[in-house]
């Protein structure tokens, strides 16, 4: 019968060549091999040599081929010809588009640069876009961090000099107990999955703390279905139990934290010497001494009496605060939804693994005091957290509380614990402060974003009004760090603190899933004044796809997809480092665009050249850089330090610091699109205090000089704002904010209820409502991807068993969900593994009709929906006539997860509500089947 068998080619030609670059289907930035046939992408696989993913590639990464070929891709620059929001455009040339943009921007720059608000979404070139904005001269720049996870980053840096995810990672090789808080599946996807698999294979325990049991929490050995917004109370109860049992690392606290530092009893500030160094009592001599002197043994229990006043250590204050019965498990159980027994059991688990299963690595190292240690002590407990605990109005203090929990166990920067990734750790004092010095036709006087150290660093004008349109770094949210992107459109529309002329945005879907109060924002973008002019006069927007935001722009600058562009994943920004190595990467055009589009960063270079912006032009007015690739290679932030750390110098043999290498991009491409420099043995743990690491970091250009520091359990910057609210200092907050600042600005982490709870009738709106991204999606892009939308074509609202049965729901039912702000009618589904008083859904699945090249009957726009319609960027009115941002009062982090709702059964409508009229699309609707053949 063999003669009847079909003839099969068992060794087909897979590709003509493989081009290696960096994935952009999420923020993991994995290495990918792009297989090419006849100049087109045939398929995408993981790069086994890449430090991030080591060959692993998820569904998103593989689906990148559908992203690059998406029907929704914009095809040419667009000029609005119909009313804003109509989607009526005409295609124009790039010369015309750049002339229009220059015509809008040039008079602003020459007269009043603050009239430009330039804000970018989830791009990974903030170092570059910030440099552009600084040289334009506007104070109004930030990226998406303010509505994502600024609480996490800011609390981490102010407390321990770094934070989770891009700043650090668990020690997967040694940890025995891994605890996650509020992590959705889209964050750090491949590394977390690989890490969890690695530790579970050797029997380590995983504890997931999240109201929703999905993704990582679904594979956890123990799930804690906590009440949203109560994480800080739960964490401080663990701290209470550990301190009560004496299960804390006293040596670690004494040597590496400010626990032994004396606090001035009169000011609440840390006591310092004439050089500004924190003061401790040396156990050996009993004398007051700077913390970093050779041979000093700081005394945690010391007191210092001077001029009739007794000054205590931070450790005293820690004990006084957290041993208080208000933090006992029995006292917090009802509010957190976690039983007292569960809290005690988890505390006992943490203590047992940290101390009873401690181990030693036979690795000598020398600390910043000059003391040599023969071994490194491992405490194999590690933690990870993200937006779930961050996106609350108490998120900053909750994140700080989590870091205090890690630190008292001695599990940060030790074997088995949480480890920093270069360029972190850095003390908060090593970061720039924010700047707002605006002069016509000049660059801003420094970076926009940074870390304030006290009231003197706030971004206020001479009359005390906010210098920035988003009110970042003001008394309303003093320690903003990433800005408040969710407030830009609302403030610009209200003219509070002032009016702007042009809103310039990149990859930020602010008329839909990236805004609270989406319907209201659409109204703000189209509102006209008494003269019939738009309240926000001009809007420039750049995106690669026909998103909801495109329709609200006057000028659209079409971006490339990620395989058609240059990108720089830089040590100056958000690199791909691992705990044992510094690493950065590039993207490069592995395919040429088949449309009239340009990479947005290149467009910014071209605009800078036309505007004659400093930093981009030479003294004679000629351009320094022709495009973004030119900038990546030739820009130097300071001598020897450029966007890329690898293959520097004429011979490509310098790393970190080095001369410009004109062939640098070619060297990266030859190396798979990335560069890695490993940390020497003995320098890879105890980084904030390890002399070898500090010296290595100086050589890499991370520091200019060694900067060892103490972890800040007690935060002096936070105390300085509280002290100002108490009436001290020259710069004073307005009266209406004093009480709030006194309450929330506690230098030791505290917990307080969500601010929205104060203005909401909790009897009427008793249910918590959350939204999170699915593992298969990132940004808005994923849900127009022909492969990925088959996984999540629409999103039900998930209800726990208690609410499901209480309201008599059945499969196929719909519900009306109401908040103080709005109402939606949506399909529901039952989920048993869910906090009893919480409902949730996937974010960014719902689409508006006419967008993303989807058909009008697409499930995304008929059954898909957003919780955003229920959330307002302002808190419920208090009757004081003031605009109170729905944000963390310390950092301005958008409080997405404080939402309270009520729910009832509803008749099934024809489509989810609210429904908006279709937008006319600048691109054609995609075909019913998306298929093509690559190669012969």
From TrEMBL:
The protein's matches in SUPFAM superfamilies, at most eight in alphabetical order, are given as: ADC-like, Formate dehydrogenase/DMSO reductase, domains 1-3
Which UniProt keywords are listed? Answer: 4Fe-4S, Iron, Iron-sulfur, Metal-binding, Oxidoreductase
**Pfam families per record:** Molybdop_Fe4S4 (PF04879), Molybdopterin (PF00384), Molydop_binding (PF01568)
Residue ranges of every copy of the 4Fe-4S Mo/W bis-MGD-type domain listed in the record: 16-72
| Oxidoreductase is among the record's keywords | yes
Q: What does this protein need as cofactor?
A: [4Fe-4S] cluster
The similarity comment for this entry is: Belongs to the prokaryotic molybdopterin-containing oxidoreductase family.
Specify the protein name: Anaerobic selenocysteine-containing dehydrogenase
Which organism does this record belong to? Shimia haliotis
């Amino acid at each position: 019968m063999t003669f009847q068998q079909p003839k099969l080619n068992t060794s087909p030609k897979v590709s003509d060549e493989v081009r290696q670059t960096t994935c952009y289907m999420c923020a993991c930035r994995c290495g990918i091999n792009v297989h090419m046939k006849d100049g087109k992408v045939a398929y995408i696989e993981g790069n086994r040599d890449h430090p991030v993913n080591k060959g692993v590639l998820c569904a998103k990464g593989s689906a990148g081929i559908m992203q690059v070929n998406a029907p929704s891709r914009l095809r040419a620059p667009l000029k609005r010809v119909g009313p804003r929001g109509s989607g009526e455009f005409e295609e124009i040339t790039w010369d015309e588009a750049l002339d229009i943009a220059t015509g809008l921007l040039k008079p602003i720059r020459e007269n009043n640069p603050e009239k430009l608000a330039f804000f970018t979404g989830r791009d990974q070139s903030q170092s570059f876009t910030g440099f552009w904005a600084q040289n334009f001269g506007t104070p109004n720049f930030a990226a998406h961090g303010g509505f994502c996870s600024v609480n996490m980053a800011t609390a981490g840096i102010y407390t321990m000099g770094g934070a989770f995810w891009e700043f650090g990672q668990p020690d997967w090789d040694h940890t025995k107990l891994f605890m996650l808080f509020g992590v959705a599946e889209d964050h750090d996807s491949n590394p977390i999955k690989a890490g969890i698999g690695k530790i579970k294979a050797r029997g380590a325990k995983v504890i997931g703390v999240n109201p929703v049991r999905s993704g990582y929490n679904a594979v956890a050995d123990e799930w804690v279905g906590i009440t949203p917004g109560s994480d800080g109370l739960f964490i401080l109860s663990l701290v209470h139990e550990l301190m009560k049992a004496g299960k804390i690392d006293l040596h670690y606290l004494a040597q590496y934290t400010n626990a032994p530092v004396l606090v001035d009893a009169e000011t609440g500030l840390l006591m310092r010497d004439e050089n500004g160094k924190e003061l401790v009592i040396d156990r050996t001599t009993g004398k007051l001494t700077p913390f970093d002197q050779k041979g000093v043994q700081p005394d945690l229990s010391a007191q210092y009496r001077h001029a009739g006043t007794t000054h205590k250590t931070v450790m005293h204050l820690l004990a006084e605060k957290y041993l208080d019965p208000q933090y006992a498990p029995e006292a917090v159980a009802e509010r957190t939804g976690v039983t007292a027994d569960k809290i005690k059991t988890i505390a006992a688990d943490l203590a047992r693994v940290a101390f009873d299963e401690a181990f030693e690595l036979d690795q000598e190292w020398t600390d910043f005091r000059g003391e040599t240690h023969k071994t490194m002590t491992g405490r194999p407990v590690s933690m990870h957290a993200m937006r779930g605990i961050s996106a609350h109005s108490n998120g900053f203090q909750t994140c700080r509380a989590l870091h205090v929990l890690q630190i008292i166990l001695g599990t940060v920067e030790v074997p088995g614990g949480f480890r920093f990734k270069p360029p972190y750790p850095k003390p908060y004092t090593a970061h720039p402060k924010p700047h707002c010095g605006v002069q016509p036709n000049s660059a801003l006087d420094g970076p926009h974003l940074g870390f304030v150290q006290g009231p003197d660093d706030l971004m206020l004008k001479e009359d005390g009004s906010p210098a920035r349109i988003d009110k970042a770094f003001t008394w309303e949210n003093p320690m903003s760090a990433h800005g408040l992107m969710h407030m830009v459109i609302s403030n610009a529309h209200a003219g509070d603190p002032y009016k702007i002329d042009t809103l310039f945005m990149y990859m930020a879907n602010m008329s839909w899933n990236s805004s609270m109060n989406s319907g209201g924002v659409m109204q703000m973008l189209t509102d006209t004044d008494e003269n019939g002019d738009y309240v926000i006069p001009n809007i420039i927007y750049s995106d690669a796809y026909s998103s909801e935001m495109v329709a609200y722009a006057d000028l659209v600058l079409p971006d490339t997809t990620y395989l058609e562009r240059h990108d720089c994943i830089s040590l100056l920004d958000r690199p791909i480092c691992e705990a044992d190595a510094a690493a950065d990467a590039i993207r490069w055009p592995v395919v040429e665009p088949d449309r009239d589009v340009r990479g947005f960063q290149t467009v910014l270079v071209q605009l800078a050249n036309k505007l004659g912006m400093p930093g981009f032009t030479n003294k004679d007015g000629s351009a320094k850089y022709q495009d973004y690739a030119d900038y990546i290679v030739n820009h130097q932030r300071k001598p020897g330090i450029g966007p890329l750390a690898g293959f520097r110098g004429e011979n490509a043999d310098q790393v970190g610091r080095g001369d410009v290498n004109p062939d640098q991009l070619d060297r990266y491409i030859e190396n798979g699109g990335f560069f890695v420099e490993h940390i020497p043995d003995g320098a890879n743990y105890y980084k904030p205090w390890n002399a070898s690491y500090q010296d290595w970091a100086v050589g890499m250009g991370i520091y200019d000089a060694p900067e060892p520091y103490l972890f800040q359990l007690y935060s002096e910057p936070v105390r300085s704002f509280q002290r100002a609210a108490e009436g001290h200092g020259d710069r004073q907050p307005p009266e209406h904010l004093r009480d709030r600042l006194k309450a929330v600005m506690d230098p030791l982490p505290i917990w307080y209820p969500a601010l929205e709870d104060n203005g909401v009738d909790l009897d009427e709106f008793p249910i918590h409502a959350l939204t999170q991204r699915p593992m298969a999606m990132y940004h808005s892009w994923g849900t127009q991807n022909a492969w990925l939308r088959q996984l999540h074509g629409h999103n039900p609202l998930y209800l726990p068993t208690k609410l499901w049965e209480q309201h008599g729901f059945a499969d196929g039912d719909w519900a009306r969900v109401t908040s103080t702000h709005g109402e939606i009618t949506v399909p529901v589904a039952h989920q048993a593994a869910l906090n009893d008083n919480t409902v949730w859904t996937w974010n960014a699945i719902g689409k508006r009709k006419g967008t993303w090249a989807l058909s009008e009957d697409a499930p995304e726009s008929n059954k898909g929906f957003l919780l955003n319609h229920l959330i307002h960027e302002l808190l419920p009115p208090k009757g004081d006539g003031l605009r109170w941002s729905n944000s963390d009062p310390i950092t301005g982090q958008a409080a997405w997860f404080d939402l309270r709702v009520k729910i009832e059964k509803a008749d099934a409508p024809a489509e989810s509500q609210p429904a908006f009229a279709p937008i006319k699309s600048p691109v054609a609707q995609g075909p019913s089947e998306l298929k093509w053949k690559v190669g012969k």
